[in-house]
Amino acid sequence: QADAAVLVIATPTGEFEAGIAKNGQTREHALLAYTLGVKQMIVALNKMDDKSVNWGQARYDEIVKEVSSFVKKIGYNPEKIPFVPISGWHGDNMLEKSSNLPWYKGPTLLEALDAVQEPKRPTEKPLRIPLQDVYKIGGIGTVPVGRVETGVLKPGMNVTFSPAGLTTEVKSVEMHHVALPEAVPGDNVGFNVKNLSVKDIRRGMVAGDAKNDPPQETEDFNAQVI
């Protein structure tokens, strides 16, 4: 459900190298973020106060060069990624510029977060909700759960579940136990449907607007394989 990610990298000698290694967490987290559709990233270079780093620009430049090369291979444009040196322990360059980093001319971590652009939501496209799960909730009924990828989901509309070919009315839409007048792309929601049991629909099916290009079976499709 995130629009942006902050990739926190430890700068001390040995710690950065472990994170960027073949099975390191830095690599894993960057790849996960891109795979999950997070298109904007901020890289925070933490522990600049460590004795092995000592606020040094040389270590900063070394890490920026290596991480830029790696995230470019994943699919990010490193020129659009702010690389922000910080000290989480002392608070340097997180909210305000730090006198310990006079050579750094970029934004603070807070400024980098404020500069994140809200992406345009594909609300004009036909509704698509891949189901993550289906629950039976006492006193409510059958509640499919999933993330709205495109379109808009509203209470009262008729949805079709494919490939089952079942159509029914949406009674309510909720996110984090709060009723919504509508759900838009990026929202992880549960929606109560009429006259369907948990045996009728299941994880992997796709819900769409019955009156506007509902999802259909296809002979082929394009996929990103990780």
Automatic annotation (TrEMBL):
User: Which residue numbers delimit the Tr-type G domain?
Assistant: 1-123
MF terms from GO for this chain are: GTP binding; GTPase activity; translation elongation factor activity
Tell me which InterPro entries the record gives: EFTu-like_2, P-loop_NTPase, T_Tr_GTP-bd_dom, TRAFAC_GTPase_members, Transl_B-barrel_sf
One Pfam annotation reads: GTP_EFTU_D2
Organism superkingdom: Eukaryota
GO CC annotation, single: cytoplasm
What name goes with this protein? Elongation factor 1-alpha
Gene of this entry: EF1A
